[in-house]
Amino acid sequence: MSAPTHAGTAARALWTPQAWLGGDSSQAWAKDVLLEIDSSGHWSRIETGVPREVASQSDASLVDGPLLPGLVNAHSHAFQRAFAGLAERRDNEHDDFWSWRDRMYRVALAISPSQLKAVASQLYLEMLRGGYTHVCEFHYLHHALDGKAYDDPMMMSWMLAEAASDVGIGLTLLPVLYERAGFSAPSLRDDQRRFASNSVWVLDAARRIDDHATRTQGAPLNSGVAIHSLRAATPVSMRALIDAATGPIHIHVAEQTGEVSECIKVTGMRPVQWLAQHHALDTRWQLVHATHVTQEEIDAVARAGACAVICPSTEANLGDGTTEMPAWLAAGTTLSIGSDSHVTRDWREELRLLEYGQRLNLRQRNVCASPTDGHASTAERLFARITTGGANATGCASWGLTVGARADAVVANTHQAALLGVPAARTLDAMVFNSPSKRFDDVLVAGRWALRSAVHPVEAAIHANFASAMRALWNGAHD
Questions:
Q1: Is 59 noted as a catalytic residue in this protein?
Q2: What is 71-394's CATH number?
Q3: Active-site residue among 289, 292, 342, 456?
Q4: Could you say which of 320, 340, 346, 442 is catalytic?
Q5: Is 340 assigned a catalytic role?
Q6: CATH annotation of 5-69+402-454
Q7: Which residues contact 475 (CB under 8 A, 6 or more apart)?
Q8: Whole-structure pTM value
Q9: Burial category of 471 from C-beta neighbours within 10 Å (exposed 0-12, middle 13-18, buried 19 and up)
Q10: In angstroms, how far is the first alpha carbon of the chain from the final one?
């Protein structure tokens, strides 16, 4: 599995009877759409109202189903795919995020570079089939099993980059600043030894990733930086990293009530409040989870143009709680989604769970819709917002089926049970709220078919390597 599959079939133009066009709040369905792709893999021209007969006389590939932009998975810990489904038993009276984390560390302390590549390859292929065409990898698993640096300190990063290239998915690698176990801790715990880094290490890693991207051909690759959390980084190191960062800055924040309480105890402020007052939030900032926030914090994030990265399936799985989606939406905040610990790898499931969590809390329906603002469809409003937010998460200037954006797209299969007989204008509604939905069989990344007619060139090898890695990691495990 050495040759990058992203060097597969290139498309120069597509025609579809229906496409979700636009890159901002004006996104909507359009009919009979011709989309042209330039040599760099970006949309160069989009024209509506083009008859099929006209398109068939050109070199355009005819797409039978509705065309949607591929989405950005804005928050991923790839190695945790090896743990998905294996933490759903409780042997003690209490189980929460912190006890889950201690069990997750067992995987973090065992996985090898080759196993990480095998797990990431499986994950990234599943993401393609789940409608994602780019992933932001919040990567803190840097060092060898004993905590010492590999001969190449970037070994684990390169495994992720190779996995993304083999699969054909876009990747933003985010080396993570991680230097202490808590607000009052002087250093990391022993079971966090593989995570150790400082601002100099992170900035150098980001530079090396971008250098690597310019030297190699494969799926799109770029870098940003990440801060694990306020509790895991000193203010001095954060300032050094933030001042030097030019791309996106991701951070876990306000995920747990315990984290919020400890932050108030130590700093006198809530986590997002502290960030807003000490680090001048701007469009680079991607606030992952931001679950436990006040209206004042939401307003501060929105004013700054920062993004909230919501991870519904993981937040539900870990018992984190639900954020105030109506408030985020009303404030006009940039939003994106992530699959985080990867208990699911499909954006339709994330959006469904996001809305259903709000319905359960508020005992209302279609909470995320806003007919007074012209957004009667819950699915369409959420999909439009997270499409736009993907650009911020990756550091791209734009995202979606719009001229200038990268030519990423997925084709919805109208022959699947969830869409049979559904009016074209209700396609997104049915895709999100009429489950289960069939996986995506045709996926375009930067103008090349990463999946075509459900076929991926090295799928068999990916599955075999993943199964082997899982057997090695869990051989003899009973918990």
A1: no
A2: 3.20.20.140
A3: 289
A4: 340
A5: yes
A6: 2.30.40.10
A7: none
A8: 0.97
A9: exposed
A10: 32
